[in-house]
Design brief:
Structural class: mainly alpha
Shape: globular
InterPro entries: GntR_C (IPR011711), TF_FadR/GntR_C (IPR008920), Tscrpt_reg_HTH_GntR (IPR000524), WH-like_DNA-bd_sf (IPR036388), WH_DNA-bd_sf (IPR036390)
GO molecular function, one term: DNA binding
Strand content: under 5%
Keywords: DNA-binding, Transcription, Transcription regulation
Number of strands: 4
CATH superfamily of the largest domain: GntR ligand-binding domain-like
Number of helices: 11
CATH topology of the largest domain: Four Helix Bundle (Hemerythrin (Met), subunit A)
CATH architecture of the largest domain: Up-down Bundle
Organism: Mycolicibacterium murale
Largest sheet: 2 strands, antiparallel
Radius of gyration: 18 Å
Order of helices and strands: EEHHHHEEHHHHHHH
Helix content: 55-70%
Protein name: GntR family transcriptional regulator
Length: 248
Amino acid sequence: MAAPLGGLTALGAMLSPLDGVGPRPDAIVARISAAIGMGVMSDGEQLPSEVALATQLGVSTMTLRDALAVLRQRGLVETRRGRGGGSFVRAAEDALMAESRTRLRALSIQDLRDLGDEHLAVSGAAALLATQRAVAADITRLRTLAQRLADSDDRVPARRADARFQIEIAVCAQSARLTRAEVNLQAELSGLKWLPQMSLTPADEGQRHHVLVDAIEAEDEETARRLAETHSSATLRALIALRMGRSP
C-alpha cells in the first residue's frame, strides 16, 4: 500500500481524475508509466478493473482500453485472460527507460520550460515551508530517503528514492496542494531526470539532498529555498540541452 502523503497517497494522487490534462489516452499512459517508474505501482501488481480504473481517472472504459493497449505495446503492462486474469504491471528497467526517452522526444523546449517553471515554484515554496513546519520525525524520514538515494546501485531505485524525497519535502510543508502538485510534477520529470544521458550519480544527488535537509533542520528558510530552486533550475537546463541534442 502506498504511504500517506499529506492526507493523500501517491497512488491516489496519480490516479486522480484527468480533467484538463491533455489528450486522455496519452495522459493515462503518462500517469501509469510514471507510477510504475516511481515505484508507486510495483512489478506484478494488478491494476484495478477497467471499470474501476476508468471511474478513478474520470474517463470512458474505451479511452482506458486505448491507453492500456499502448502500455502493453511498450512492455509496461501485460493482460492475462481467464480466472485470476486482468492487467498487471511489468516494471522492467529497459521498458521504463524507453518510456522516458519517448516522453522526452514528445516534449517541446517550451513544454520543458513550463514544467521547469512550475517545479521551480513548487519546490522552492515547499522547501521554505518545510523549514517552518517540519518536525523531528520528518527530518529523520528525509535523511533516510537521501541516504537511500546515495546508496542506490542503479537508476531505477535512484529515480524512485529521488522522487520520493522531492514529494516528502512537500509533505513536510504540510500542504496538501503542494504535495499533490509535487506528485504530479515528479510523474512528469523523474523519469526524464534519470535517463542515462543525464550523467547523474546517485551519490552526488544524495549528498545534495542531505545539504537541503541540513538547511530545513536548521530552519534556514533562505538557504533551503535557494538550494531547492538551484537544483530544479540545473535539472531543467540539463534536460533542455539533452532535448536539443547537446551533452547536459
